[in-house]
Amino acid sequence: MTSLSVLRVLDLSEGVAGAYCTKLLAGFGADVIKIERPGGGDPVRRHGPFPDDLPHGEKGALFLYLNTGKKSITLDIAQRSGALLLLRLVEGAEVVVESFPPGWLTELGLGYGSLARIKPRLVMTSVTPFGQDGPYAGYRATNLTAFAAGGQMVVTGEPDREPLKNGGYQAEYQAGLHAFAATAVAAFSADATEVGQHIDIAAVECMATALEPYVSSWAHQRRDIGADRSADPRPQRRGDVEPAPAGLTLQDLLEAPQLRARGFFQEIDHPAAGRQTYPGPPFRPEAMPWQAARAPLLGEHNEEVYCEELELSRKELVILRASGVI
Amino acid sequence: MERLPLYGYRILDLTKGPTGRPTLGPGAGPYATRLLADMGAEVIEVEAPDNGGLRRSDTFNHVNRNKYACTMDLGQPRGRELFLRLVALSDVVIEDYRSEALEALGLSYDVLRSAKADIIVVSLSSHGRSGPEKGFVADGADIEALGGLTAVSGYLGGGPQKTGIAYADAVAGIAAAGAVALALWHRRRTGEGQHVDVAGWEAMVGLIGEHVVGYSMNRRLPQPVGNRHSSMAPHGCYPCAGAARSADLRPDDQWVTIAVEDDEQFAALCRAMVRPELAADARFADVVSRYRNQDELDGIVGEWTRQVEPQAVTQALQAAGIAAAPVLGVPALFDDAHLRARGFWESVSHPDAGTWDVDGVPWRLSRSPAHIRLPAPRFGEHNDYVLRGLLGLSEDEVRDLAGAGVIGGGPDPDVRA
């Protein structure tokens, strides 16, 4: 429990960016409900690695990491009865996070305008590769293509080879970290003013704001210093620590005395995936300690949310399940 | 237009501090306060009186828009006293000193709290404020390496690669901005301030968390996979036709990225390449086959893209429902139709440095859209506002402080941006 526990967050997003945003909110204490599509749930559940390399929807490392501390319910918001259930949940929520193709929620009658009519102080955060408007808003994208279009790929890699993506999902994580900070600012403001708003986070814009000094060099001098992947315009400062150019491996990282002394890595048990090691918080507010809790099983909190909170009967739940709404 | 969300909140910015280099990359703190200033906070940079010539640059002007600046020598008792009076009128202090350096100045968290009981203090560093290495300094590139990102990045079969930007600075900066928002929430709810410890190293590890959990599962070190993906193929960066982006470049340095998520998209790609027969080819019939025969497949895709310009490949594939995007450099981003249509680039005029376009605000808020309101402050530009306006000093007192070297004498006409 922290002072953030009164912040109810509905996470409709799929993929990495939105999930990382709500992971951080959950970690600092917010009450996050992940809303997954019935059947397979968030497609991230199918991403490896898995224990012993055996694919399993409850055991993927990416899903387990991104969804710590959240509840999971299943809901098909494309069905009318599903949409109505979502609207009931919005009444009790402060924040909605989503990552659908722009316009899709509006088609379902679930756009920001509709949700804000029910809950004027709602903060809705849309996190997508290209944002809610503009000529590429409808573009299909993945972490790779967003990374390329955000300007960070052309400066990564060797000059005589193709531009290179960084390891993992860095385009998505950057967008997710921005979405988290922006959501926190807007939620704080909505708490004070009782007026919410819609936040539009575009991964490509998040990436382009981190292109310093390339941007100011071009803006002021029309010099494209990042163009050929050979320049390293970063200041040649020497820290107290000079890790080998290869960097720490995961093994080195887990054994690093500084991080161990700070208790950064945490063991979290999970009924399907077992006890694994997870990174801790990205920052430490002394009055808001990090809540290290496991990722939910698919639909684990259906009864708690639908029956206890929304007061549906078990019979109604069975019908909803049979019709594929949950 | 409605008030910006952080309107009315005052943040004292000691990052890239007056008394020496920061404990992490120089971009982190100023990026954090840039994001907060964009959201309407009154960010006042507190600089040492002898600092001006060192700090004004293109990058300084880029990252310090929407902020104010004053000068104060925190090493002098009268400067310290002025600062504490200013703390009493503020909500947040953000700093990136070595962990003992603020204490040595007599400005520990406890002292700041005695000036303002509910003050929020955010301390940025590479290694954090506790642990055996708490005083260590590391900059952006080293933090990436420490954080494990370097070891999992690189070409397939090749060695580790760093990012092309000061990535850890940006990551720590965004995290710190989020920390300020949460601490403001907590203060509003409980009346309490707090001290927040932001370690750039830890924030960095958070962005490869799935690798940590994966290693915990199987104790196997992940190898760099280049531009490939474990469940999509083709998934890569392909050479294109077209003119060079600039005179320094090889004429063939034009690229497009393509990611094919399923069989249906692969069939559409084959039609776009005018090779429809490939969709039925046993080598590429399903994702597992495509993944196994990826070298061959990349060769085929590259043969096609080489004859087409990146934007044309992108448009053709997007029309077919396939994720594709050109690899854009900064000049292309400046001209990009999408970013221009969204108003991402904003013009800013600075009295010394002139008028230019820079990236605007990456967080688009529907009710209170934020923009660049002010150019970066000149050295000591807001001394009068801070000393006389906020602290209520008389003209004589200000003159006396300037004479004693406690504050600067105002904008130095020789210091040009």
Brief digest:
The complex is a heterodimer of chains A (326) and B (417). Chain A has 326 residues and is α/β, with parallel strands linked by helices.
Descriptive key words:
heterodimer; A: 326 residues; Rossmann fold; 9 strands; globular; B: 417 residues; alpha/beta; formyl-coa transferase, domain 3; 2 domains; 18 helices; 37% helix; disordered C terminus
Description:
With 326 residues, chain A is of the alpha/beta class. Chain A has one domain (3-234, 266-278, 286-322): Crotonobetainyl-coa:carnitine coa-transferase, domain 1 (Rossmann fold, 3-Layer(aba) Sandwich). Chain A has helices at 17-27, 61-66, 80-91, 104-107, 112-118, 143-149, 170-193, 203-208, 214-221, 250-255, 257-261, 302-309, 314-322; strands spanning 8-11, 31-36, 71-74, 95-98, 123-128, 198-202, 266-268, 276-278, 284-285. Chain A has a six-stranded parallel β-sheet with strand order 3-2-1-4-5-6. Chain A has a two-stranded antiparallel ribbon with strand order 7-8. In chain A, β7 and β8 form a beta hairpin. Chain A is globular, with a radius of gyration of 21 Å. The model of chain A has no long low-confidence stretch (mean pLDDT 94). Chain B is an alpha/beta fold and 417 residues long. Chain B has two domains: 10-206 and 343-403, 3-Layer(aba) Sandwich (Rossmann fold), CATH 3.40.50; 235-328, formyl-coa transferase, domain 3, CATH 3.30.1540. Helices cover 37% and strands 14% of the residues of chain B. Chain B has helices at 28-38, 52-55, 58-63, 77-87, 101-104, 109-115, 140-146, 167-190, 200-205, 209-218, 263-272, 287-292, 294-305, 310-319, 330-335, 337-341, 383-390, 395-403, and strands at 10-14, 42-47, 67-71, 92-95, 120-125, 194-199, 235-239, 255-259, 323-326, 345-350, 354-359, 364-365. A six-stranded parallel β-sheet of chain B has the order 3-2-1-4-5-6, with helices on both faces. In chain B, strands 7-8-9 form a three-stranded antiparallel β-sheet, covered by helices on one side. The chains are: A alpha/beta (326), B alpha/beta (417). At the A-B interface, α2, α6, α7, β6 and α8 of A face α3, α7, α8, β6 and α9 of B. β9 (284-285) of chain A pairs antiparallel with β6 (194-199) of chain B, so a sheet runs across the interface.
